[in-house]
Design goal:
The complex is a heterodimer of chains A (about 80) and B (about 300). Chain A has about 80 residues and is mainly α. In chain A, about 55% of the residues lie in helices and about 0% in strands. The two termini of chain A are about 15 Å apart. The chains are: A mainly alpha (about 80), B alpha/beta (about 300).
Chain lengths: ~80, ~300
């Protein structure tokens, strides 16, 4: 899962090549990789790829700060 | 004193005079606007200077003064609009909608619709509520405060609270808001977005792009076009303007903006529409009252 998400973010969302490669604990928000619009694409990717629904209340920095955080969120949702 | 006057006007006078016949209610609102024009000399001068800075000699000094006076009138009338709308839909007889078929046709295609506008006239508080009262599921993207910038005054301001009554919801611009907006559009509902939030040039966020705007260049946020391209929802430009009698209004909904080209090209079309609306009715544009408006333009009429 980490690899899948990391690959998507690296290939589709990172606009500054100097930020590559991104680690799973790289802060996506502080580095500017994730903003409201790139999160739009990421969330729809996650929902389609992992067959989950991410609610508005889950769209918080704690859930999307790093790839590890995103994986934790997906793990929780797929376990339900 | 001015703050106290605003509290009294918004919380006491507006709810009372809204019950009066329209010509009286709006007549009193305009009178209050004229008083404000004379009392609030600081803001009056800011408006006049901003008009000169941005539009230069395209407006004579006499017209700038009239626009500044009308600016205060527009502000004063807005609260009346909302309260009258809430009172058995009394606003209906005084509001004409042009282009409603554009919104209906957009929703008939099942991808939702984006009403794109500006801090212009009564869009934020009234237009969306008016359309919401007619049954359209409208969610407004805006910061807290609505028509009243002061947070505590918002709680007291009856009009401000009533304005949200007919809205399906409000989305605040923050991380994740684009996702919320996209999901709302997927449900074939309507999102209202304002695109003329002008950041200070020297500290503009990276998401903002430099565009031609009102004789100069300014940074604006093109997120509306990104969301439109992502969801397939059409962008309909939306403006409300008052008739010369101050009682009647026209809400205009445009046909969909052409979506060919890249995000920047599409966004430029939206900005051009906003630019045209401001030039046609300059008194309706709220940012004239910003003390830092000059800091939001890279250049202006005079520096070209």
């Amino acid at each position: 899962m980490e690899w899948t998400i990391n690959t998507y973010i690296s290939n589709d969302l990172v606009t500054n090549p100097e930020l590559l490669p991104i680690k799973n604990d790289t802060n996506l928000l502080d580095t500017g990789i994730l903003d409201s619009l790139s999160m739009l694409r990421l969330v729809f990717f996650l929902e389609e790829r992992f067959r989950v629904k991410i609610g508005a209340e889950e769209l918080i920095p704690d859930n999307f700060a790093t790839i590890d955080d995103i994986c934790d969120l997906i793990h929780i949702k797929t376990r339900k | 004193m001015l703050a106290l006057e605003e509290v009294i006007y918004s919380t006491i006078i507006v709810p009372l005079i809204a019950f009066l016949p329209a010509f009286m209610a709006y007549g009193i609102a305009c009178f209050r606007g004229d008083l404000l024009y004379h009392w609030d000399s600081a803001k009056r001068e800011v408006i006049i200077q901003n008009l000169e800075f941005v539009l230069g000699t395209q407006l004579s000094s006499k017209v700038r003064i009239r626009v500044a006076r009308d600016y205060f009138r527009v502000l004063s009338c807005e609260g009346i609009d909302i309260v009258r709308l809430r009172l058995n839909g009394k606003a209906n007889a005084f509001v004409e909608i042009r282009g409603l078929e554009n919104l209906k046709e957009a929703l008939a295609k099942g991808r939702g619709a984006i009403l794109c506008g500006a801090h212009f006239g009564a869009l934020v508080s009234f237009t969306c509520s008016f359309l919401g009262a007619r049954g359209f599921p409208i969610t407004l993207m805006r910061r807290n405060g609505g028509i009243v910038r002061n947070a505590w005054l918002t709680h007291l301001n009856i009009a401000s609270r009533l304005a949200d009554h007919y809205l399906k919801g409000i989305v605040q611009p923050k991380l994740g808001s684009a996702v919320q907006v996209a999901k709302i559009l997927q449900q074939n509902e309507v999102i209202a977005i304002i695109i003329d939030t002008l950041p200070i040039v020297r500290s503009h966020p990276s998401q903002a792009v430099l565009v031609d705007f009102l004789n100069g260049k300014a940074y604006l946020f093109p997120g509306v076009t990104t969301i439109a391209k992502f969801t397939g929802a059409p962008i309909l430009m939306n403006f409300a303007r008052r008739s010369p009698d101050w009682r009647h209004q026209v809400i205009e909904i445009s046909p969909p903006i052409m979506m060919d080209g890249d995000t920047r090209t599409i966004f430029a079309r939206c900005v051009t529409a906003v630019d045209a609306a401001i030039r046609r009715d300059p008194s309706h544009w709220r940012p004239w009252g910003r003390a830092d408006l000059k800091d939001t333009f890279v250049n202006s009429f005079y520096t070209q």
